[in-house]
Amino acid sequence: VQLVESGGGLVQSGGSLRLSCAASGFDFGGDIMTWARRQAPGQELEHVSSINTDGRITYYADAVKGRFTISRDNAKNMLYLEMSALRPDDAAVYYCLNQAGRRGQGTQVTISS
Questions:
Q1: Using one digit for the tens of pLDDT, what is the confidence trace for 49-65?
Q2: What is the DSSP string of 67-102?
Q3: Which element (helix H / strand E) includes 46?
Q4: Secondary structure class of 30 (helix, strand, coil)
Q5: 3-state DSSP assignment of residue 29
Q6: What average pLDDT is seen over the chain?
Q7: Separation between Cα atoms, residue 84 and residue 104, nearest integer Å
Q8: How far apart are CA 33 and CA 64, in angstroms?
Q9: CB atoms within 10 A of CB 34
Q10: Which residues pair with 97 in a beta bridge?
Q11: How far apart are alpha carbons 84 and 107 in whole angstroms?
């Protein structure tokens, strides 16, 4: 199983970013996929968003609802997170997770005010 997150970086408060996760080594199209974030070392992972296998059902944490959009491309084994209206408290390392809870190394999102 390999999950590789990308797309993080430094963005101004109010800006946008698109995170990507390239998946391999498992049946991506058969898994519910999740984005989670860790805002500081030692903190627990915070569940941000999930998407079902065909992309028709999504879940968002209240903190990101209306600002983030999760999507997937099963043909490409890719998971995405479109983030807009970013706030300082969105700063975190973002991870994609498969249904078994495996995750990648994460991608850092930093917000400048």
A1: 999 999 999 999 999 99
A2: TEEEEEETTTTEEEEEE-S--GGG-EEEEEE-TT--
A3: strand 46-51
A4: helix
A5: helix
A6: 97
A7: 23
A8: 17
A9: 22
A10: 34, 103
A11: 16
